[in-house]
Specification:
About 30% of the residues lie in helices and about 20% in strands. It is α+β, with helices and mostly antiparallel strands. The protein folds into two domains: about 260 residues, Phosphatase 2c, domain 1; about 80 residues, no CATH class. Strands 3, 4, 5, 6, 7, 10 and 11 form a seven-stranded antiparallel sheet that branches. The protein has a six-stranded antiparallel sheet with strand order 1-2-13-12-8-9. A hairpin with a 2-residue loop joins strand 3 and strand 4. It is globular, with a radius of gyration of 43 Å.
Amino acid sequence: MSNTQAMQNFAFGNATHVGLVRKANEDYFGSFDTPNGYVFLVCDGMGGHVGGAKASQIAVATIRDFLMSQTLPEAAAALKNAIIAANNAILQYASQNPDLKGMGSTCVAVLVQGSDVFYAHVGDSRIYLQSEGRLFQITKDHSFVQMLVDMGEISEQEAEHHPRKNEITNALGLPNMKPPDVCLYPIKAAKGDYFLLCSDGLTGMVANTNIEKVLNSAADLQQKASKLVEMANVAGGKDNITLQIIHFHNSEYKKTENYTDKTIPGETRKLKLPIILGGVALLIIGLIVGYFLWPETNKEVPSINKNDTVLPVKNDTVKNKPVVKPEAPKDNPRLVPDKSRKEEVIPPSPKRIGNEDKNVQPPLKKPEKDTVKGKGPVQQKMKKPDPKPDSIKQKTEDPRKEPKKDTLKNA
């Protein structure tokens, strides 16, 4: 069965076939005008000959009635709610007919408003866009093999021939059906663009590259639809084959916009390669920067050994200036307590910590006994020039007295 019809700025054709293996056609499609826009549907039924065919028919009829009965402000939300209504209708029919328990259907839906194309889907039926001679797959299958592709277990080419390719993860007729995938923005179709809605009876038999060639051919829509069905049957016709083609022969947009980057296998990898290379480049740059910054942020830490004993100081002193500096010698007396002193230890003040080692004077030695009498040894020592004249200015009023505690500040 096939049909071709022309509208104001687009034309469409459709075709369906039972295939060469199945005894009945469980697919169903619909195309109709509504107050919300022109709607195109393809549904692939499942659950036995009777149950599958009935489920796909209920889905098309429910979506049509939902969109015909009211005008909704948002087209994408209208498609989503219509598909949810179809799921509820199938569940209700199955509950009233226990012999059809397990019936269900996939669904792909397109709603056209002028040259804006909204779309939604559930299951593994697909929607394609052909623009400027290139074929883009704009839906992602809700299937087991697609999960493997997303996890990186298999490639998209391997998924096309995987033994579990027909297992789907979401469909109409499931009590816990996940909400349909709906476009965030409408595709702005340009003149010459094609949209293809189809069941997996086509995509499971005909490669995307061959579909692209047929859509690029000079044949009319009816001939293209019939050719695709023929190619699927020549390849084996293992499933029902249903498709709809929409062609925009006029548009207000000069260039197609708002379609996803998911394309035919091979070109998908080309699109992902720059992203992968960019991520690797950022990682390398981060490692290089971290290598050079890490020693800078830890200059003060390596100079402290875990076995070192550090002179206790107040917290606010530490905040003003680190106790240990890389250029300080390891035997810095300010970092090691003076064992000759008893329990009383006077911590250096923040002002003293700011001084460098070169400004610290050694503590005075206890005068020898001969110096009390003012004998020769003392006189000889006093005559020797001191390289640091300022150090002579120690208090000498009574050299017999013990040096005051203030001298500890020089330590």
